[in-house]
Amino acid sequence: MLRLDEVLPGVQEEASRRVHALPPALMQVAFSEAVIDSRQATSECLFVALRGERVDGHEFLADAAARGARGALVRRDKVSSLSLERPFTVIDAVTGAGLERATPDTMLLIAVDDPLAALNRLAAYHRGMYNPVVIGVTGSVGKTSTKEVTASVLQRSFRTLKSPRSYNSEATLPIVLLNLTADHQVAVLEMGMYGPGEIAHLAALARPRLGIVTNVGPSHLERMGSIEAIQRAKSELPQALPEDGFAILNIDDPRVRAMAEVTRAKLFFYGLDPAADLWADSIESRGLQGISFRVHYQGDSLYLNLPLLGWHSVHTALAAASAGLLLGMEWEAIIAGLRDDRAQLRLLAAPGVNQTTLIDDTYNASPTSVLAALNLLAELDGRRIAILGDMLELGSIEEEAHRMVGVRAAEVVQILITVGRRARWIASEAIQAGMPSDQVHHVEDNDEAAHLALSLTLPGDFVLVKGSRGMLMESIVAQLQQRNP
User: Fold this and answer.
1) Using one digit for the tens of pLDDT, what is the confidence trace for 241-294?
2) Backbone angles phi, psi at 253, to 5 degrees
3) Burial level of 300, CB count in 10 A (0-12/13-18/19+)?
């Protein structure tokens, strides 16, 4: 619960400064949560008007007000142009001027120079009020899945806060931190990267004690310029960990393994290498039935059967189990968390139209994750169809990466449908690799892809849909899903 006397003037100056002379009517004002999407505004929330690449949150302030938002962080230079149907009071975040005019019924517009910076300072202050064990999760591929499975494990023994969806940026991770309460013992936070220094900034806000790094790959290569730059950016998480913390590193990725050199935290390796602290062998993927493997830790071994899909999920499970072990959990509780199929966010299997099985992996796409999805598809006994869209932000390797996917698609699927300018390379390379040209189709948009798939599918088919987030391929899934009468 955010109190007004926390917000003023801490968002503009040192977090320790407080306003003590609030009007009696406002002493009990509290915000239940902070939101940056006006559609999520509630009667007790603080709306933060952020300026993004495409839209300015101030344009949605009236909507947040109409939905009953108690207050808002707004730009000082926007105040004079604001117009709301509800009564409002503008409050200066530094001086507190304007408080004297406020009543319990007015909307409180807290004027700051930069709402994003104010939100971050407020989150850092709020984080400092509590002492949970924070686990940061980053990596080029699989960080959201790892965050979800790790939270699923830890909540078996601890009162756990986790990032919703992909709240992993300087605009969204503070929203998660503001949900911290004294009741939370653990927080599992995803940390994304737009550029150098961002993970270091997020770590400074969240102050993680454990840090999980899944892998380093070419995701965001277009922005970052080189795989080495991506590695340096991801290493900001282990660099930020304290001496009494743990860097949980994927031993099978050489670039992640090398992060042992840049952290002062204790090391805990996981993977398939017997040199790891926690390692697995005897892996068997059972298609849509999940995976099984043998896990080894401190001389003991046990077999696990989990509902997670695909070979790559072994690393996800090991990372989550590592966090549980380091926090003193017993294997019984860890396994219960790993078996909770609600933690499976990606590669979701669902009934499709025409008595097909739809494999929805539209969350995002990189060369590694597309190949992993195709590998899972290859294990399924039936006719296999793949609808693949562009993989974005690959920079100089984008043609090579798409053609590599095309080669694997030719080995796996009987029908290939591609969507997007870059995905043409997938189609052309699949044909070059020997796939019959009449089984390869390139279309211009998602609707066309869905309509084509509807005309081609037969009962018993498996249909994979995958592409980068920006391709919005969930619209294809929506058209291919079987709907209840």
Assistant:
1) 999 999 999 999 999 999 999 999 999 999 999 999 999 999 998 888 889 999
2) -105, 110
3) exposed
Q: Check whether 331 has a pLDDT greater than 80.
A: yes
- Tokens 């992060």 found at: 259
DSSP secondary-structure letter at 113? S
Q: Which two tokens stand for residue 292?
A: 């099984």
Please name the residue that has the structure tokens 């277009």.
222
Of the candidates 163, 108, 168, 114, the residue with the CA atom closest to the CA atom of residue 138: 168
User: For residues 453-483, b (16+ Cβ closer than 10 Å) or e, as one string?
Assistant: beebbeeebbbbbbbbeebebebbbeebeee
Domains of the chain: 2-114 (3.40.1390.10), 130-343 (3.40.1190.10), 348-480 (3.90.190.20)
What is the tens place of the pLDDT at every residue in 353-405? 989 999 998 988 889 889 989 998 998 989 999 999 999 988 888 999 999 99
pLDDT bucket at 12, cuts 50 / 70 / 90: very low
Instruction: Give the C-alpha separation, 438 to 274, whole Å.
Output: 46
Mention every residue, 6+ apart, whose C-beta is less than 8 A from residue 43: 67, 68, 69, 70
Order of strands, sheet of 246-250, starting from the edge strand that comes earlier in the sequence: 160-162, 186-190, 133-138, 210-213, 246-250, 266-271, 278-285, 291-297, 300-306
pLDDT at residue 105, as a whole number: 80
For residue 146 the two structure tokens come to 């790892």
